[in-house]
Amino acid sequence: MIVEYIRYKVPEARAQAFEAAYGTAQESLRASPHCLGFELSRCHDAPDHYILRIQWDSAEGHMEGFRKSAHFPPFLAAIRPYVPDIEEMRHYDVTPVRWTR
């Protein structure tokens, strides 16, 4: 498994539309067998900052499987207006240092 983090800075005036766009885009993520889960979080302290966390089966599953599938074009169409708002987009390997209650 690999985790993709995408950091966005979205002005308050566009926040509701941004969240609605991901409401639409999530259907493509749910439909992909390579996507294991996701969450969109909004910063409490700086409400114009968001982080999208997506769990993929692998980097290849994301880059080759999802991005070259029929699920990607509708995903990109939904979020395309917010691509310029991306501050960082990277894949991270999960370490054994973790805990959940």
Automatic annotation (TrEMBL):
InterPro entries: ABM_dom (IPR007138), Dimeric_a/b-barrel (IPR011008). Gene3D superfamilies: 3.30.70.100. The keyword ATP-binding does not apply. Pfam families: ABM. SUPFAM superfamilies: Dimeric alpha+beta barrel (SSF54909). Signal peptide: none annotated. The lineage of its organism: Bacteria, Pseudomonadati, Myxococcota, Myxococcia, Myxococcales. It comes from Corallococcus llansteffanensis. Residues 2-92 form the ABM domain. This is Antibiotic biosynthesis monooxygenase. The keyword Lyase does not apply.
